């Protein structure tokens, strides 16, 4: 592969944005393993996981210039998670067309929770908190990663993960309260 192994993710992404395929290969080698593992936790179909992983890196190729910062982990996971949601929607649309597949089209409890996180009040509230806090919450709460795994994924110290998780919960509560104010002004 390319001679980019010593570069941080930000440098690799800048090289990808300039059309460097070797930098994309190095970025893939660096991140595809953990992305595959996380996608597999959310989707049991290995073919869908493979397609989502491929789509993720196609998106990285096309939009690397839009990434800011040195670490790419959270950004890559956001792309992969959105691609997985898109793939599931496509499967549901296909399943709705076939009567025998209707039972399979009923979303699981996990799918309903994830859809709520993506599109409901919680998703709206998540969009209102800062990206670094949102990354920590998604990794620890949605993906169920430990503090150590989250620290490794995001390239930050474990103590920073813990403090961001606390701040994220506080900011998320405040954002949810703004979305759904209690009619009496007290706790619901």
Automatic annotation (TrEMBL):
Alphabetized GO MF terms: DNA binding; sigma factor activity
SUPFAM superfamilies reported for this sequence: Sigma2 domain of RNA polymerase sigma factors, Sigma3 and sigma4 domains of RNA polymerase sigma factors
InterPro entries named in the record: RNA_pol_sigma-70-like, RNA_pol_sigma-70_dom, RNA_pol_sigma70_r2, RNA_pol_sigma70_r4_t2, RNA_pol_sigma_r2, RNA_pol_sigma_r3/r4-like, WH-like_DNA-bd_sf
Domain of life: Bacteria
Similarity remark: Belongs to the sigma-70 factor family. ECF subfamily.
NCBIfam families assigned: sigma70-ECF (TIGR02937)
Protein name: RNA polymerase sigma factor
């Amino acid at each position: 592969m390319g001679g980019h192994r010593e570069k941080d993710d930000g440098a690799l992404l800048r090289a990808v944005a300039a059309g460097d395929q070797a930098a994309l290969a190095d970025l893939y080698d660096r991140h595809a393993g953990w992305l595959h593992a996380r996608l597999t936790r959310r989707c049991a179909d290995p073919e869908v996981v493979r397609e989502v992983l491929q789509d993720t890196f196609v998106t990285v190729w096309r939009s690397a210039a839009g990434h800011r910062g040195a670490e790419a982990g959270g950004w890559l996971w956001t792309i992969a998670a959105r691609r997985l949601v898109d793939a599931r929607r496509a499967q549901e649309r296909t399943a709705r067309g076939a009567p025998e597949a209707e039972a399979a089209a009923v979303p699981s409890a996990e799918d309903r929770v994830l859809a709520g996180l993506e599109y409901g009040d919680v998703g709206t509230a998540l969009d209102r908190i800062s990206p670094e806090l949102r990354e920590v919450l998604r990794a620890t709460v949605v993906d169920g990663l430990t503090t150590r795994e989250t620290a490794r994924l995001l390239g930050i110290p474990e103590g920073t993960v813990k403090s961001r998780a606390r701040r994220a919960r506080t900011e998320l509560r405040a954002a949810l309260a703004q979305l759904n104010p209690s009619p009496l002004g007290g706790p619901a």
